[in-house]
Specification:
By secondary structure, the chain is of the alpha/beta class. 29% of the residues lie in helices and 23% in strands. It has 5 helices and 9 strands. Helix 1 packs across helix 5 and helix 3 crosses helix 5. The longest helix has 15 residues.
């Protein structure tokens, strides 16, 4: 049975909700041939990746799929690339604001996902798009650190990031209802569980 670790973020920016957390909560711990483990990350530059890394060390997953909220996007975004820049328009939940700072002085300028992103897009049909910008806030920070860790430690792990739109619970548009977003992530899990795609 393949093991997939799925991360989500806590609410941030004064909100009490986060679409990634809502979707994560809607996923079963066993989905077909996949064992799903979960971790909720703080919206904190200093500790978010540490918590993800601890969970990775504990679970020894085959795949790490990180998720975050991207309010204003019309579709689910399969992120292709993480860049070595932190530049937030708002502070993290601890009040730390970063402006045009490198994430790692010794890291590459960018890392690409090693997930089968085209197969993921094909499985989702019209509900998702490939994105070439994960932003420069903590979502990108986590994505970058994850891919750097996989590459530098030469791990046999697939890693990537999904940005999720608002759900109907936010009373904002555009949105994709929660049930549909859960189904989309399950379709992605189908791809990740396919031996021919990994």
């Amino acid at each position: 049975m393949k093991k997939v670790l799925i991360s989500a973020f806590e609410p941030f920016g004064g909100s009490t909700l986060n679409s990634s957390l809502l979707v994560q909560q809607g996923l079963k711990s066993i989905y077909k041939n996949i064992e799903v483990s979960k971790v909720v990350l703080p919206v904190l530059y200093k500790t978010a990746f540490d918590k993800l890394l601890m969970k990775m060390d504990e679970e020894k997953p085959d795949v790490v799929l990180c998720m975050g909220q991207a309010g204003g996007r019309q579709k689910i975004s399969v992120e292709r690339i993480a860049v070595n820049i932190n530049n937030g328009t708002i502070a993290d939940n601890g009040g730390q604001l970063k402006a045009d700072e490198t994430i790692m002085d010794y890291g590459l300028n960018a890392y690409f996902t090693n997930l089968p992103y085209m197969a993921m897009i094909n499985a989702i049909n019209d509900k998702a798009v490939i994105s070439y910008s994960a932003g420069t806030y903590i979502c990108n920070d986590i994505f970058y650190r994850l891919m750097h860790h996989i590459k530098s430690a030469d791990l046999n792990i697939k890693g990537g990031f999904l940005h999720l739109p608002y759900t109907e619970h936010f009373d904002k548009i555009p949105y994709i209802d929660l049930e549909t977003q859960v189904v989309v992530v399950e379709a992605i899990l189908d791809v990740l569980g396919d031996k021919n795609e990994n």
